[in-house]
Amino acid sequence: MPETSSTLTSQKKWVSWALLGAVVLVFLISLVVGNQMAGGSEEAFGGTDDAATEAAEEAGAEPWFEPLFEPAGEVESGLFAIQAAIGSGIIFFCLGRMSGRHAAARRDASEDGSTEAARVADAETAGAQALDRTAPTESDA
Amino acid sequence: MHIAEGVLPPVQCAIWYAAAAPFVVHGAYRIVKEVRERPENKLLLATAGACTFLLSSIKLPSVTGSSSHPTGTGVGAILFKPPVMAFMGLIVLIFQALLLAHGGITTLGANTFSMAIAGPWIGYWVYLLTKKLHGPNALAIFLCMALSDLATYCVTSLQLAFAFPDASSGVLGAAAKFLGVFAVSQIPLAIMEGFLGILLFRFLVKVAAPQLAGLGLDLVPGGRAADPASDATAKEGSHA
């Protein structure tokens, strides 16, 4: 239990790599097993949304409204890519900005020793140092 | 989970619109309030919205030989509580309905209900339950992400089953049929989303610990005890 409960805060590099590896692994298993399930046919990896629509139409659904705008296949993939690009652009802009602010706050704190933030940062670094060094040091005093 | 344009009968479209509307209005109100009260959380709010925008645009292959979308609504559900996701999810679904002919304007109410309301709430309840049972944070996040994804597709299956009950086996038979299309395919995607969620939160805990504490999330050990201090740093951060 303690091992898993620190998964979130442990800054060990391998944890992130292991998580990323797990994502890729599930993706690859899905790709290989899915390909076999589909029998390598051209219809492999059809969307579940389309399958559900077909099933609904078999059960008597009669579409009574057409999409206002339906992009052609090639354009559609581009629009999906744009959606993904906008999404990841925003995510990584925000993550980068938060990361930069965090770094700046720590730097400011270490330069200007009087603020509350500095004390917090000092405590953090002191804690980290205490963890790093097994033997207590007097050199700081 | 996108029910295609015009597939649901008009009356059911109206019912799902009516069911989703209060959640969406409440969500919009919560977002405005959040931005006014805690402007330092704007970046986190944008991240939560963009996660749904990004993940729901990607079609991933599944073990069943079909492909499907993740939903990405769990991030916002944990960070800002589920109501916020009702509004964010609606924006994503409108974008897809109008530009991509994915989902539809008539089925927008039903799709919003499954992806932006039911999914985030179920994920969030499981998150709270895991925390209550003193489960590890990473597990709580994993389950919230995975189940908000999976639950979305289960709700869609039920929506379709209510609309098109099987001639012989009724609503239950139809539910089993639609779950057969959606649920199994979604399991590997839900697992991937769970791992991605832990990755994202690991990063957030590192760079945005004060904001997370300000939102009342006790993801950082000792976060409760350090509350006054982290509030102070949060204020410093908002001035910077």
TrEMBL record, chain A:
Chain segments carrying region Disordered: 104-141
Q: Does the keyword Transcription regulation apply?
A: no
Quick one: a GO cellular component term? plasma membrane
Q: Its Gene Ontology molecular function terms?
A: cobalt ion transmembrane transporter activity
Pathway(s) where this gene product acts: Cofactor biosynthesis; adenosylcobalamin biosynthesis
The organism sits in which domain of life? Bacteria
Membrane-related topology note: Multi-pass membrane protein
Q: Which UniProt keywords apply?
A: Cell membrane, Cobalamin biosynthesis, Cobalt, Cobalt transport, Ion transport, Membrane, Transmembrane, Transmembrane helix, Transport
Family assignment from sequence similarity: Belongs to the CbiN family.
**Known partners and oligomeric status:** Forms an energy-coupling factor (ECF) transporter complex composed of an ATP-binding protein (A component, CbiO), a transmembrane protein (T component, CbiQ) and 2 possible substrate-capture proteins (S components, CbiM and CbiN) of unknown stoichimetry.
Q: Its function?
A: Part of the energy-coupling factor (ECF) transporter complex CbiMNOQ involved in cobalt import.
Protein's name according to its UniProt entry: Cobalt transport protein CbiN
Record the organism. Answer: Propionibacterium ruminifibrarum
Lineage here is:
Bacteria, Bacillati, Actinomycetota, Actinomycetes, Propionibacteriales
Automatic annotation (TrEMBL), chain B:
Topology with regard to the membrane? Multi-pass membrane protein
Question: From the UniProt record, which GO molecular function terms apply?
Answer: cobalt ion transmembrane transporter activity
- TM segments? 14-32, 84-101, 108-127, 139-164, 176-205
- Where mainly found? membrane
State the superkingdom.
Bacteria
Query: What's a GO biological-process term for it?
Result: cobalamin biosynthetic process
Q: Which UniProt keywords apply?
A: Cell membrane, Cobalamin biosynthesis, Cobalt, Cobalt transport, Ion transport, Membrane, Transmembrane, Transmembrane helix, Transport
The UniProt entry, under Gene3D superfamilies, shows: 1.10.1760.20
Respond yes or no to whether keyword Protease is given for this record.
no
Pathway(s) the chain acts in: Cofactor biosynthesis; adenosylcobalamin biosynthesis
Q: Where in the cell is it found?
A: Cell inner membrane; Cell membrane
The Gene Ontology CC terms held by the record are: ATP-binding cassette (ABC) transporter complex
Tell me the subunit arrangement. Answer: Forms an energy-coupling factor (ECF) transporter complex composed of an ATP-binding protein (A component, CbiO), a transmembrane protein (T component, CbiQ) and 2 possible substrate-capture proteins (S components, CbiM and CbiN) of unknown stoichimetry.
Q: What's this chain's function?
A: Part of the energy-coupling factor (ECF) transporter complex CbiMNOQ involved in cobalt import.
**Sequence similarity:** Belongs to the CbiM family.
Q: What is this protein called?
A: Cobalt transport protein CbiM
Organism expressing this protein natively: Propionibacterium ruminifibrarum
Source species taxonomy: Bacteria, Bacillati, Actinomycetota, Actinomycetes, Propionibacteriales
Gene name?
cbiM
